[in-house]
Write a structure and sequence with these properties.
The protein is α+β, with helices and mostly antiparallel strands. The protein folds into 3 domains: 12-73, no CATH class; 77-171, Ubiquitin-like (UB roll), CATH 3.10.20; 178-308, sav2460 like domains (Lipoxygenase-1, Sandwich), CATH 2.60.60.30. It has helices at 32-41, 58-69, 118-129, 297-308; strands spanning 47-48, 55-56, 97-102, 107-111, 136-140, 143-144, 148-149, 152-153, 166-177, 183-190, 200-205, 220-227, 237-245, 248-257, 266-276, 279-289. The strands form 4 sheets. Strands 3, 4, 5, 6, 9, 11, 12, 15 and 16 form a 9-stranded mixed β-sheet that branches. Strands 10-13-14 form a 3-stranded antiparallel β-sheet, with no helix packed on it. Strands 1-2 form a two-stranded antiparallel sheet. A hairpin with a 2-residue loop joins strand 15 (266-276) and strand 16 (279-289). Helix 1 (32-41) crosses helix 2. It is globular, with a radius of gyration of 21 Å.
Length: 313
Amino acid sequence: MKCIQCKQEKLAKEFPPSTITERCQHISSFCLKCLITQLKDQNKTQHKCPEFFTILTSQEVKALKLEWDKAPFKIGVNSIGKIQPIISDYGNIATGEFHVVMLNGQKTTLLLKENKTIIVLRSNIFKKLQVNQTKQKLIYNREELQDTFERRPRTLADYKIGPGCHIQLIVAYYNRCCNLKVCIFDLYWTYPANGPQDFLDGSCLLYAAKLDQLPQEVTQLYFVLSSQKLLSIGNFHALCFKLYEEAQPDKELCTYTIQQASNSQAVILSCVSRTGEGMWQVIQVGKLSSGNVNDYDPIKISIDECKLHGYID
């Protein structure tokens, strides 16, 4: 997509995921960076959409600034897994901060001195992000971090993780299950009470079939939810999604609260990824995206971004 302000081609994630105000019926042609710059340059007592001059409320402006402050694309592609120099004395781990980033862009900052071992790191991630230790898959420099080696606890220093480093956190709900053959994508909701009639499109990209019948070259399935007409899936209510195996319908593999993506055109819910011959794992993604059933290109770009960063191998 090309920003009409800076004239640069940018990824879909660098634009606001939905309309900047409920009173606008268009997706912003300004990238998020240029939009925030425009708002800062305006009269502070009254902010307007730079394209159609619709007045924005203070809450809408605050939400846009918060979205920019937390934008995951501001983390450079090369910073995730990039080895930073470690300054330490007598073999002790360096002081400073490092970061843990989830697939949905959520980022948390931790102190090196409080996370000397991988086991302690997992415990602190649970405290901060409420992700169970058994479901944490930690990736750094394209290598999965292991708790121990030859009965010795592995440390962050073992992996050359120093100040400013970014560790990728993947939430693996159902890991290395050789009997996982048929996945059921269960999605239900209530329709909008007002406005035009619309439909939700629950799709599986890039392939949909029985897992045990997939060719070996198919390694990942992405489950996506998008609106057919409206600019936001937030117009639907009581949205609920769960993924389970046909043979065990009472055992959920993954659940997602759709309200988390209520202001987005689409959301990449989860991924079923091949880990070995006949073995699959279910991974929570929760990545917001623009695009819908009539325009899948932005969604495909969002999926490619996950693969680009080496999130899911």
